[in-house]
Amino acid sequence: MRLGFIGFGEAASAIATGLAEEGLRDLYAYDVVCGPALTERAARCGVRLVTSLAELAAQADLVLSLVTASGALTVAREIAPHLRARTLYADLNSCAPQVKAEIGQVITQLAPNVSYASVAVMSAVPPLRHRVPLVADGPGARRLRETLEPYGMNIEVLEGPLGAAATLKMCRSVVLKGMEALFLEALLAAEKAGLTEQVLASLNASFPDKPLGDLGAYLLERHRLHAQRRADEMQEAAATLASFAIEPLVSAGAARRLRWSAERLTSTVEVSGSGSEMGSEDLQARSYRTLLRRLNDTQK
Which UniProt keywords apply (predicted)? Predict the structure, then answer.
């Protein structure tokens, strides 16, 4: 089996590393940004970089799309005419269910002999790598599970309409990304008042069995590393609610807050490359406190 990744960022490289350790050798990737860092990352994972989507399609029996929510449909349109018969195309991007369905229509129209699976990634990828929980639907979902489970991947097949897995994830994101936005907004004020640690300690005291302050620190560290992507996902979650005729009053506000932050986190924000799962507690604290201070500085 030859597996190709569209996009080779944090999630794809983590999955590739795990699959390589499980014995999968034929790994390929295409990314529009191809610099020294990407080349080094691919070499560490044993992944061969290709120079075009057409070349990736020529090499791969299974294609995993891991780009962005905003780019998922465009990428599907670009690669579909090049996909060989019996290829399995799986979209793992955090898109609204209607976008997942549109991607399925594109594959059906432009590559009728290709199977499609709509996949939702249900946790942060780096700590779990290829074992991250996935929920899949669509005509290619069972084949995806049968193909990748022997390599240790954790795939649940969800019965229902195309995009059902995305609906599940987006409803989950309303809660998780919504909490992220709440913590961000509350701690921006707390940081200005010099009370960040006290607020977090108070939250932990309110929920001693499940420290809420620790969750807030974790969510803000993830936000620091992936603000734009998480803002995009919250926007997709709001769109999902709207598709069910539920006005996303809270979700739309959370999306605006996350977008506000993402737009202010420029390249001057230090991203060490080590997620919160890999850093010490002191490093995590410095990271999210630095985030809060920088965002507050943009309002002066």
Answer: Oxidoreductase
